[in-house]
Amino acid sequence: MLDLRARAEHYLGGPISPEEFERAEPYARRKLERINSREGTDHGGEYLAILVSEIVQSDRFSDYTLALSLQREIEKQVAENPICQACGKCGMRKDRPITETAPHISTIILPHARAKVKTEVQQ
Using an 8 Å Cβ cutoff, are 80 and 57 in contact? Predict the structure, then answer.
């Protein structure tokens, strides 16, 4: 019997987390059904494993590019607003380490960056 996750990991060349597999496997099954229906083929488990590995790889690249975009937006926001906009005194300044008393990056800069990334992705 085919262990789908193990075969997908083989094709990917590395481990696949349970969360990644749970997200990729249903999509890969739907994609395989569409391919078989459209082409009149009967690709089975090995091809399904290849599709799962491709979807995981694609999702990882997508997550990476979104994180990179978010990081760049954060750097831009910190450069433009070197003092925390939430309290004006917490010490979140450009070129200074963030102290434990400076959690405001998650409440001020990150939401703005996420919204900007979402807008850019939709365009």
Answer: no
